[in-house]
Every structure is written in C-alpha cells, then in structure tokens.
Amino acid sequence: MMNNTTKTDCRDMFRPFIEKNFTQWKPWTATCVRSSLEDFFIPQSDTVSGYAGAEYRQAFFKYCRVSNYAEPVRVWWRNDEFLKLEAEFPDIYLPWPDGFNTDDDVTKMDYSFGNAVFSQAELVYAHKGIALFLNSDYDKVIKVTVFLPCDMEFYISGIRVSTGVREF
Asked: What does each C-alpha distance from 153 to 10, 12, 137 come to in angstroms?
C-alpha cells in the first residue's frame, strides 16, 4: 500500500464517516498510516491486539471518541496502515441512500452480535468499502464498518470479524 497519502486525503476520506453522512458515500481510495489516525480520532484506550478476518490475521485497534457517535469507535490497523473503522449503535436507520439499494451490489451474510444470530442481516458492499449490520427488524443499523474497497474474498479473509455465539 502507498504511504504518500497526505493528511488532507485522510481527512477527506474519514469526513463522511465522522459526520455520519452516508448519502453521498464514495469508496475510499487513500491509504492512511496509523500515525495519521490520531489526527482525526481521539484515543480512549490503549492499543488492543485482535484478529480480523477468517484467517485470524493479527490487527490492532484503539477505542476512539468521535463527536457524532454515542459509543467509542474502533479504529483498526495492520502493519501500520489503516484497516477499518467500526461503530456500534450509530443511530442510522434505513432506508439507506439510493446508491445502496440494489441487491446486485450487496452480499447478505449471517452474523452474531452478543448471544443473538441475525440471519442475512450483514449487508456487505465490499466494492464500496462498507458493511451494515442490521437489527432483527432490518430497519436499523446496529453496527457499521468502513474499509478500503476490496472483493468479498478479502473482506471475509482479512477484514470481517467472525464471532460465533458463545455458550456458558
């Protein structure tokens, strides 16, 4: 990935997410290095080590405060390059903007959230770099993940966090 991205490129890339302005969503093109992330997100935690993707590749994240989000946003990176942003309970409702309404562009997947499994409620627009995780009524986004555009294979193997239902 390229490392000559400017802070302006990164600011322009993150702005629609920060402002929750998904009506004009455009796939990201810039690759931002980890050091530039703290220019836009206020860390609320130490660095946490985690795994992203079905291949359980190591990645890191920090919980960060973002003014338009009630809950901290997870800012993920791998090899010092931005990987994705994840926001839970972002107060986003459907219908989604027109550019996202075609079934040809979306891959629907099952996902678990806490102890619940939601059938076909993870809407992945891999080539647009965004995934929406819907509630059981399919009318509210309970998590949004944004990332650099990719194919579904890479989304599953390198970005998606797969957590099964845990039994106690």
From this structure: 25, 27, 28
Residue 26 structure tokens: 């455009």
**Signed CA dihedral, 121, 70, 127, 26: sign only:** positive
- Angle value at C-alpha 87, between 81 and 89, nearest 5 degrees: 175
The angle subtended at Cα 70 by Cα 80 and Cα 19, nearest 5°, is 65
Single-letter code of the amino acid located at 114: G
CA 70, CA 92: separation in Å to the nearest integer?
12
**Residue 154: other Cβ atoms inside 10 A:** 15
The answer to whether 87 touches 143, Cβ cutoff 8 Å, is yes
| Contacts with 88 (C-beta within 8 Å, 6 or more apart), sequence order | 71, 142, 143
128 and 105 in contact (C-beta within 8 Å)? yes
Which residue type sits at 106?
V
Return the SS3 of 105: helix
How much is the pTM?
A: 0.84
Q: What is the pLDDT of residues 151-162, one digit of tens each?
A: 999 999 989 876
Write the DSSP symbol of residue 157: I
Distance separating the N- and C-terminal Cα atoms of the chain = 42
